C-alpha cells in the first residue's frame, strides 16, 4: 500500500505541474472557446428564468442570425425559446419617424440592448445550441484516461463524509454542483470526466462549506477546487492538465493564487488520495464536515 509520504510526494509533483501549466498561459482551445463565447449575449435575470422554464437543459442560446454567423443553422421544425426584447424608439429625419411612429425591436443578436430609448417590449425568439447543426463550437480540453474502480471508490469517499450523491440533469450547463451536503453530477459524463467533476465538487464540500467560505472569493474557491481535482486525477492516472489550467484561468486564477492556497490544496487532495486506496467499506472521513448548507457551487 502506498504510504502517506509517497502520496504527498505525488500530490506535490502534480501541484508543481499545474503551476507550470498556468505559467504557460491560455491553451489554443481556451482562446478559441473564449472568442466564441464572447459572441453569446448575456441575458437579464428575467430572461434567464424564461429560458430555464422553457428549456431547462439549455446551455448556449442565440438568435437565428447569430447562429448563422457562428457557422450553424437552426434545425427544421425547432421551436424558438421566447424572451422579451425591448422596442427601440428611433428618431430619424422623416416627419413620420420624428413623431415616434417608427418603433422597431432591437437587433436579435443583442435583443436586450436597444440602440435608442426603450419604448416597450416585444417577444423575440432564441435557440439553444442543441437545436442547431453545423460547425462545431470550440470546447474545453478533454479529460482523458480510465479511472477504473477508482470512480466507485471516490463515490464511496463522498458518501463517507455524509454527503448525498445524485446523478441527475442539471440546468444551466453545469457538469456538477456542490450544494452543502449534496453533490449533483450529470449522468451522461464519461468515467474520466465524472471522476474529475466528483473530485472538484468534493473539494468544494471540504474546503468551502464552513467559516472559511466567508474569507474567500469565487476565484479562490474555483482555483482551489480545480487544483484538488487535478492532483487527484494525476495521481489516479487521469490526464487533465490542459483542462484544469484552462478552467482556473477562466475564473481568473493564476500561479500566485495557487501558491497561496498550497496548504489547503495539499491537505484535501492528500486526504482524498489516502481514502481512495482504502477498501470501500473502510473509507472514513478525515475532515470534519459542517452540517450547515450554503449557496451551491457549480462546475
TrEMBL record:
The record places domain N-terminal at 3-108
| Gene Ontology molecular function terms on file | single-stranded DNA binding
Which residues lie within the region annotated Disordered?
A: 94-115
* Bias type Acidic residues, positions: 98-110
Q: What is this protein called?
A: N-terminal domain-containing protein
Q: What is the lineage of its organism?
A: Bacteria, Pseudomonadati, Planctomycetota, Planctomycetia, Planctomycetales
Amino acid at each position: 500500500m502506498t504510504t502517506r509520504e509517497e502520496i504527498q510526494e505525488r500530490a506535490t509533483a502534480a501541484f508543481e505541474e499545474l503551476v507550470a501549466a498556468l505559467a504557460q498561459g491560455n491553451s489554443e482551445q481556451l482562446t478559441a472557446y473564449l472568442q466564441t463565447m464572447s459572441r453569446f449575449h448575456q441575458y437579464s435575470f428575467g430572461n434567464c428564468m424564461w429560458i430555464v422554464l422553457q428549456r431547462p437543459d439549455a446551455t448556449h442560446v442565440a438568435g437565428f442570425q447569430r447562429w448563422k454567423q457562428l457557422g450553424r443553422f437552426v434545425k427544421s421544425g425547432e421551436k424558438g425559446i421566447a424572451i422579451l426584447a425591448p422596442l427601440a424608439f428611433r428618431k430619424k429625419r422623416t416627419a413620420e419617424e420624428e413623431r415616434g411612429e417608427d418603433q422597431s425591436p432591437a437587433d436579435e443578436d443583442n435583443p436586450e440592448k436597444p440602440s435608442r430609448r426603450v419604448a416597450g417590449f416585444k417577444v423575440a425568439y432564441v435557440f439553444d445550441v442543441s437545436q442547431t447543426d453545423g460547425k462545431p463550437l470550440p470546447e474545453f480540453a478533454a479529460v482523458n484516461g480510465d479511472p477504473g474502480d477508482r470512480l466507485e471508490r471516490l463515490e464511496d469517499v463522498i458518501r463517507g463524509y455524509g454527503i448525498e450523491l445524485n446523478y441527475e440533469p442539471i440546468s444551466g450547463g453545469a457538469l456538477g454542483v456542490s450544494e452543502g451536503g449534496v453533490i449533483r453530477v450529470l449522468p451522461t459524463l464519461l468515467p474520466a470526466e465524472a471522476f474529475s467533476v466528483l473530485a472538484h465538487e468534493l473539494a468544494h464540500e471540504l474546503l468551502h462549506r464552513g467559516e472559511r467560505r466567508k474569507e474567500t472569493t469565487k476565484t479562490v474557491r474555483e482555483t482551489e477546487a480545480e487544483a484538488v481535482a487535478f492532483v487527484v486525477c494525476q495521481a489516479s492516472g487521469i490526464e487533465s492538465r490542459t483542462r484544469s489550467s484552462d478552467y482556473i484561468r477562466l475564473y481568473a486564477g493564476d500561479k500566485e493564487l495557487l501558491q497561496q492556497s498550497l496548504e489547503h490544496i495539499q491537505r484535501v487532495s492528500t486526504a482524498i488520495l489516502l481514502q481512495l486506496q482504502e477498501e470501500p467499506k473502510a473509507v472514513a472521513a478525515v475532515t470534519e464536515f459542517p452540517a450547515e448548507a450554503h449557496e451551491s457551487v457549480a462546475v
